[in-house]
């Protein structure tokens, strides 16, 4: 692959990320899908969002290597899953769990329904 091609592909991956984050109130970048999470952390994140009765979209980072790599740069967060609410990075499954246990996540998600 020519260097220009890789730069163009990375740019396209970043645009995909921006579009998904910008067009969905709750966006989860994860391994697998809502119906079939492919790792325990992704499963935890999905379970937490479902427990909050959140409407959310997902993107399977296993299906696109460049999105998987660029999402880490986009958020400055090294791990997957990654959850965004109203365009803002919230965190991974550990932070979602902390927010859920404190009630903060449900409060944040309830604001979206107003």
UniProtKB/TrEMBL annotation:
Gene Ontology CC: mitochondrial matrix
Iron-sulfur recorded as keyword: yes
Coiled coil (residue ranges): none
GO molecular function: 2 iron, 2 sulfur cluster binding; disulfide oxidoreductase activity; metal ion binding
Annotated positions binding [2Fe-2S] cluster: 39
UniProtKB keywords: 2Fe-2S, Iron, Iron-sulfur, Metal-binding, Redox-active center
Sequence ranges assigned to domain Glutaredoxin in this UniProt record: 26-90
Signal peptide: none
CDD domains per record: GRX_PICOT_like
Pfam families: Glutaredoxin
Alphabetical list of InterPro entries matching this protein: Glutaredoxin, GRX_PICOT-like, Monothiol_GRX, Monothiol_GRX-rel, Thioredoxin-like_sf
Family membership noted in the UniProt record: Belongs to the glutaredoxin family. Monothiol subfamily.
Protein name: Glutaredoxin
């Amino acid at each position: 692959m020519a260097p220009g091609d890789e730069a163009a592909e990375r740019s396209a991956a970043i645009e995909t990320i921006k579009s998904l984050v910008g067009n969905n109130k709750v966006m989860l970048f994860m391994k697998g899908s809502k119906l079939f999470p492919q790792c325990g952390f992704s499963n935890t994140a999905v379970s937490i969002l479902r427990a909050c009765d959140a409407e959310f979209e997902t993107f399977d980072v296993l299906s696109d290597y460049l999105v998987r790599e660029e999402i880490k740069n986009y958020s400055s967060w090294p791990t997957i899953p990654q959850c965004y609410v109203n365009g803002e990075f919230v965190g991974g499954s550990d932070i979602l769990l902390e927010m859920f246990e404190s009630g903060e996540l449900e409060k944040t998600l309830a604001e979206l329904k107003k």
